[in-house]
Prior knowledge:
two-stranded parallel ribbon, mainly alpha
Amino acid sequence: MCGRIPVERMVLVAAMPPTPGEAPGEWWENTGHGAAPAERERLDGGPPDEDALFYHDVPPEPAAEALSRERAQSGGPFGRPWPLVRRPETPASFPLCRDDRFPPAAWLRGLVRERLGTEPEERDGGHVPLLSRPPELAERVMRLSGG
């Protein structure tokens, strides 16, 4: 959208920062993501189940609701490269979720610096702050966006 309408700042929440021309399906290999979960599993003593990976800090009721609405994702978007030839000049902010398990926050810090050229703004919480900490997320996005 930053190339289509005037935008003062991008705020990327629980995002997979791409590079120009990169398809989402290439992101995993291009970023070395495969090693990140392996290290997390080593530290945690084994792989978490998928619910724990994404919803470990979401209250039970919204987590159950979200899980009941999950659908298989189409593979189509993963094969289409990001259409821009360079990253938008729009400033970016990345509220990094310290407790994120997908992808692990310790690994994501460096990727945000490398790909967005910005220091992530760390906060508590896991991968789905919209469900686990909605007021805090709204306040942070508004602050980061200048609102």
